[in-house]
Structures are given as structure tokens and as C-alpha cells.
Amino acid sequence: MAGTGIDDALDETLDDSLWSLGIYDAHCHPTDTMDVVPEIPKRKIQVLTIMATKAEDQELVAQVAREYPDRVVPSFGWHPWFSHRLWDDMKAGGSDITISKKEHYQSVLTNEPTEEFIETLPEPKPLSQFIAETRNYLEEFPSALVGEVGLDRTFRLPNPASLIGPDDKKLSPHKVQMDHQRRILEEQLRLAGEMDRPASVHGVGAHGVLHDSFSSLFKGFEKVVRSKRTQKRGPHDFEGDEDSDVEDKGPKPFPPRICLHSFSAPPDFIKTWLNPKIPATIYFSFSQAINVGYGYEKFAEMLGLVPEDRLLVESDLHIASIDMERHLAGIIHRVSRERRWDPSKTVQTVGKNWISFVYGDMASKALGL
User: Fold this and answer.
1) How many angstroms separate the CA atoms of 306 and 80, rounded?
2) Where do the domains of the chain lie?
3) Which residues pair with 74 in a beta bridge?
4) Residues 6+ apart with CB under 8 A from 97
């Protein structure tokens, strides 16, 4: 028996006629459960936007993209949950200074870790090496994104199984210092700007810091917003109050398009991210797993603030890769109910938006969307 309210979405499916319109998963992690990857050709989903998160899965994502080029858009990035594994050798402009494993982890983790805990962690990878490797992947895949990147204030490192006793907790007291997370994020965003690629961004418990991080990169590239007075005078009949042409400034230190995935910040942040001065196009993606499954009580309010042309949907969690269709059906139906749209309009809208997010407005226009 179907439930009521939020739980209704859990049992919903989509008619084949809706799948045939083309449904795009804006953010997913099938490489976390590799046994589902061979099922990709059987999926009803038009294209999967697959995220990399750490050292172990960059090449896995590339392999899947090579095997299923028509069904996968790869995304290469380092998730904030694993940012402690990167050593910021770029901070001093590529200096030859070295640092020990112990010094590194003691400097980037909160609540100074013990030597025993540090011993269980991998040797930190130089950030410059990771950026170089990511650049190579982006060159190999001209449509690839940068992601999953971002900031997370709530995540705690798990305790290694070897250190967990009968009275110990699974999560350690250690988090990754926010300054370190910001540095890892910043260098990846600069690469996205250099390569003119969109980025898929994670933000949990650090919404203000995340916005500030982007704002620091936007500085000097902000759009000039015309006043109502000059707007009334037409597009050319004014002096010194025109939209800035940021394209003339060459490569920018930030992505041209940004997806805030499984967006769960307070609704007012949507207004903040939609500031017309921001020189990047901001998209908001929602998932059943985070935005509906956890019963986020302000989802309807958030959704109402998102412009129609900035809305995306996704399956998100690695466990969702086992049942992507059901997760996407759930969020599509929920969006349809909240926006009072026919499901076909929802599917067509988020499909058009996905193409614009990944390929840019020019590609979307070329396809007649």
C-alpha cells in the first residue's frame, strides 16, 4: 500500500513515455558499487553524470566513460571527505619544501590525531600531482566536469577497524580543517576555470564558507547590474552602466557553470546564489535521497525559489546506484507536485537544463532547446 505525504515518492515509477523523453542524472556514484556498472546499458536513464571523489576512483570513472561514451559524462574531482589525503604543495607557489606524513596530518586534522591513528592513513598525495592528473583527464574527455568538490563541516573521519575496541565509536573526533578544505576546493575550481568546465559542488554545514570561497574567486569578474533607470532607456542608450563582459578577461579562476548538488542550505541561500552580479551560472540539483528521503521540511520552499531554467535532478548516494530509476522517479514526481507541473514538463525542463549545465547555453540553443 502506498504511503502518504513525503513517503509517496518512495514507491513511484515513471511511464515509459516519460523515460523516452530523456532523463539525465546530474550527479551519481555507480563506481562506488562497481557491480552495477555493467547494468548501465540496460538503464532507462539517458545519461549518467558520474562523480569521482578520491584517488581510488578517478581511473574507474574514466574507464566507465570510455566503455559507455554515449551514456556517461565523467566528472573528476576530490571530495572534501578525503581532502586530508592531499598535501598542499601548491600553497607556496610550488616550492620544494617537503613535509612528513605525521606533520601533514597533524596540520590538517582537528583534535590532534595520535601517531597510531596517523599510521593507518595513506601517504598524502601532492595536490599539484592530482591537479596535473585531473587536467589530463579533462583533456581526454572534452565534456568532462570537475567534481565532486566542495566543503563539509560535519564530516568526521571513521576510526580504522584496527583501532575500534568494544567501547569505541565508529567515527573519530577528527575533521578536516576548513582552511585546508578551502585550499583543495580553490585549486580545483581554478582548474575548472582554466579548462572552461562546469563543476559539481558538495556543501554540508558550511554554506556561508562555501559561498565566501566562490566569492573570493569571483572578485574582479562580477557582472555590473544595470539600474532600473538605464534598463528603461534601452540596451545602448546609457553610459558607464552596462553589463561587464567578463569573457574579455581571458580564463577565469572559477567554473563557468556550477551545480550545487543535493542542495540543502537554508532557502535564503538560493537568493544569495542567484545574485545577478555572480559571473557564473548557478544550478540547483535535488535528490530523493537527501532532499526527500530525509524529510527536509523546507524542500517545498526551496524549490519555489529556484528558477525554472536552473533546476536539475539526481540520484546522488552510492546506494542509489543500485536503483537509480526509482530514486529519479521519486524526485521527478516530487518536483512535479510542488511546482504543479505535468511530469512530462518536469522531465523536459530538467533535461534541457542538464544539457545547458554540461555543455553550455550555446550547445543547448544549437539543439533547438
Assistant:
1) 26
2) 5-225+254-366
3) 50
4) 89
Instruction: For domain 5-225+254-366, give the fold.
Output: TIM Barrel (3.20.20)
Does 59 sit behind a cis peptide bond, omega within 30 degrees of 0 on the bond before it? Answer: no
Q: Are 322 and 295 in contact (CB under 8 A)?
A: no
The DSSP secondary-structure symbol of 234 reads -
Residue whose grid cell is 596517523: 118
* Three-state secondary-structure class, residue 174: coil
Q: Count CB neighbours of 112 within 10 A.
A: 12
Predicted confidence (pLDDT) per residue in 50-96, tens digit: 999 999 999 999 999 999 999 999 999 999 999 999 999 998 666 56
How far apart are the C-alpha atoms of 324 and 317, rounded to whole Å? 10
Which DSSP state fits 150? E
Q: What is the pLDDT of residues 119-171, one digit of tens each?
A: 999 999 999 999 999 999 999 999 999 999 999 999 999 999 888 877 778 99
Summary count for the chain: helices (H), strands (E): 13, 10
CA dist 130 → 70, 125, 325, 335 (Å) = 27, 7, 33, 37
Cell numbers given for 270 = 538560493
Q: Distance between terminal CA atoms of the chain?
A: 39
**Cβ proximity of 74 and 64 under 8 Å:** yes
pTM to 2 decimal places: 0.91
CA angle 47, 48, 51 (to 5 degrees): 150
Question: Quick check: 107 and 86 in contact, CB under 8 A?
Answer: no
What span, in angstroms and rounded, lies between the C-alpha atoms of 301 and 287? 15
